[in-house]
Specification:
Number of strands: 8
Order of helices and strands: EEEHEHEHEHHHHHEHEH
Structural class: alpha/beta
Strand order of the largest sheet: 1-2-4-3-5-6-7-8
Number of helices: 10
Shape: globular
CATH class of the largest domain: Alpha Beta
Strand content: 5-15%
Helix content: 40-55%
CATH architecture of the largest domain: 3-Layer(aba) Sandwich
Distance between the termini: 39 Å
Length: about 280
Amino acid sequence: MPIAHVRGVQIFYQIIGSHGPWFVLSTGGRRSHAEFISLATQIAAGGFRVILHDRRNTGASEVSITGDDGEEIIWADDLAELLHQLQATPAYIGGASSGARLSILVAQRHPNIVKAIVLMRVTGGETAATRLPAKYYQIFIDAAKAGGMEAVCATDDYKERIKARPENKLILMNMDPKQFIKVLENWLKIFTSGPSYPVMGVEEETLRAIKIPVLIIPGNDRTHASINAIEAAKMIPNSQLFKLPIADQEVDIISFGEWKSLEPMIATRIIEFLKGLSACKLDA
């Protein structure tokens, strides 16, 4: 699978489909792009070239604990550079959970390369504000404070990063724990700066300023409650809300894998949305 050198970091990516408009699909959390291969394959069958990638510090991409910007901003700038390298601009951008936030940030920071956005499983609410800061940052800060970088490497998340890319262990072990802690504490501070917004970490003014078309597909757990997506759709001027035939459940998180039976419906709606935009442009 190809590796791109993006802003000093090796980024693992995959392209599914051989023709048609470009569509980027980003997973949630810190999960590998592999979670979306099935969905991407179904979307590609509709006439699109779907780009999947592992963001830095996720999947099989390189670990790089550096930068003064928030980690999600770093991811957004990385993705913009990857698209330029692949000559895949302008593109449609979409994702689930943190991948949805990434899509918004790319459109905000690099508006000339984004034609439309697809937001799935929008993150927001008290459960997300409570769970995610610890899951993404605090547990690793605590590990580094307690046992240095060896303890960080022993966490489940970083075990996965090392298994997927063994070179990541040397990178981590060569880091000064104090610098690791400093960067993660800054990322944590930025990440928690706006947890009460309908889309976690994204100001309402940012949502209202989005002018390109947006398709929103709500989630159905406490981290991705449907109300988050419904409220976001009210704020984004040119948005379409697509509700799946599912009800919210009183659980913290439902994995995307549990949505497997919904993938054909999701793929069909995304294809209809994107092709509808192309048809409108032809009619204009």
